[in-house]
Write a structure and sequence with these properties.
mainly alpha, globular, about 110 residues, 5 helices
């Protein structure tokens, strides 16, 4: 209904930093990140144009949520929604698979390891 608020131009606001946080986003980056998350929730994978900090931020938020609630199913769903990026970018892949295995071990999901 309000998707028009989140329409994006072809340019993705540049966002490349180590250990990104919500607090580190400027206004344009935050607007894009919210739009990015909405698209992921609709099973869409928008092009981040190499700005992989948006993906890392989504992963960090997912991991922090898992640490608090131990909901492995939610973590797994979020990682699945991000799988296109995880598989496309080696920089993300080398961490994400291990993080998901670690979470499976913590949650006692031995079959996932």
């Amino acid at each position: 209904m309000f998707d028009f608020l989140f329409k994006r131009s072809k340019e993705v606001p540049e966002f490349n930093q180590y250990y990104p946080t919500i607090e580190s986003l400027n206004q344009d980056q935050l607007k894009y990140f919210k739009w990015f998350i909405k698209k992921l929730e609709k099973d869409e994978t928008p092009d981040v144009q190499g700005n992989i900090s948006y993906v890392f931020l989504a992963l960090y938020i997912t991991i922090n949520r898992f640490i608090k609630d131990q909901n492995y199913n939610q973590l797994s769903e979020n990682f699945e929604a991000l799988s296109t990026y995880i598989n496309e970018y080696d920089t993300i892949k080398k961490y994400a698979h291990q993080w998901q295995r670690d979470a499976a071990l913590l949650a006692g999901n031995w079959q996932e390891v």
